[in-house]
Structure formats: structure tokens, C-alpha cells
Amino acid sequence: MNKNLGLRKAVGIILARDDGKIWTGKRKIGIGVRPNEKNLWQMPQGGIDIGESPENAAYRELEEETGTTSAEIIFTLDEWLEYNLPSELIGKALGGKFKGQKQKWFLMIFKGDDSDFNLNSHIAEFDEWAWRDIEEMPDLVVDFKKELYLKLIEKFSPIKDKIKSN
Prior knowledge:
Elements: E1 6-16, E2 22-27, E3 41-42, E4 45-47, H1 54-66, E5 71-84, E6 98-110, E7 126-132, H2 146-156, H3 159-164
Parallel strand pairs: 1-6
Antiparallel strand pairs: 1-4, 2-3, 2-7, 5-6
């Protein structure tokens, strides 16, 4: 295990409906998911490509992971939030090149309807999805992302207030 690995720059997306519910996906079992992992739900996220702006990465990741482009950024968190992988995933997850991620988070308002979602429009990362309250997410996400999700609740909750102010 290489402890000198850095953090991958990435984005995270809180995709919200007008009622404040957020889109969540259940991760497919595979690389980056530990055996017997129970908390497989998360919000869309992914790496920023070289030369790509965080905003463009957010729209690209949203489309790749959910199949929709029916969204608009209404709020960007100024700070970057970080998480580290557990030791057993370092060298395996994130292409084996990073020890975790440094993420820029965006709140997007969903402008479409549920039929817009297609989890197989790209390489499928999720096998289910659901609308939820953001406050539920720390209990549904993998343990090593729990602290990051608690920070998201602190910064974004209640979602309805952020939606109304835009």
C-alpha cells in the first residue's frame, strides 16, 4: 500500500427536486465496494478530467451516472470536502492511484421527470435509485464517506431553503 498517494480532484452533486428531496443511487457491487458492505447509497460524484472545470465535470458526471441532463447548478460550495479510502481499498479503488478524493460539491435543481433517468446510459455505477431527504444519507453511505455527508447536511440542509433562495 502506498501511503504517499494523493487525493483525486472530484465533484459531488446534490440533485434536488422542488420539494427538497434528493436523488440517491445504490452502488453496484464491484471495485471500491467492500464485501458485505451494507451502506451502498450515495449521491452522484466523480473525478474531474484534466483541463475540465468542476462545473463541466459535475454536468458530465450527472449525465454519466443518472442518464439525465435536466438540471441546473443553483449553488456551489466554496470549500472542497475530502475523504480517505479505508486501507484495504487503497491501491484498488479510484484506479489504484489515489488515497481518497477532494470534492467540490454542487446543488442542482432537477428540471425533468423521473423517466429521464437511465442508469445504463454509460458504464452503470448504480443499480437502483430513490428520492430521499439529505438527512437520511449519513446512515446509508459507506462508513468512510459518513463524515463528508454529515458536513454536506451542515452546509446544505434544509435543501428547500437553498432552492427557494435561488
